[in-house]
Amino acid sequence: MNGYAEQIKAALTAKQVAEYYGFKVNYGGYISCPFHSEKTPSLKLYDETNKGFMCFGCGKGGDVIYLAMHLFNISFKAACVRLSNDFNLNVTRERRSHRDEIKALSEVRERAKERIFFELEYILRTLEFRRLWKAYIHKTPKNIDDKIDDDYAEACRRLPILDYWFENHPYQG
Fold first, then answer.
1. Which range marks the domain in which residue 17 is found?
2. What pLDDT does 169 receive?
């Protein structure tokens, strides 16, 4: 398996593997680490072969095979077979069963679908936050006797909720 592993590491970058499995890599080559909870991306994906990845938050790191092992909680051998099959490298003699192929494809599609729904929800909440922030700024009562505007009241109720959501759901793009 070691000869296979070297061929896989020479053929793939950590960035390619992460993107294939549904992660959106930012301009600096970082993603939010899937191995621990964080607010800002701290897992660096290297764009060169044999470089791998390194998380500066939790300390996990390694090559593309270890990335697949950690992502799917599988053995070294299973990670080699999965990467070989997913990227059509044909370096291992083992093939996944049809059921495993369908399961792997389903996992990739599910991650992509989750990412799309998250991004859509993030955009909608951002638009709501901006609308409410404008109402909060421009419709704040100037005097104690002024009538409280409905938009201002809604902003007072919703802005803390949105702020909490953004703190707990950092954008990973």
1. 2-95
2. 82
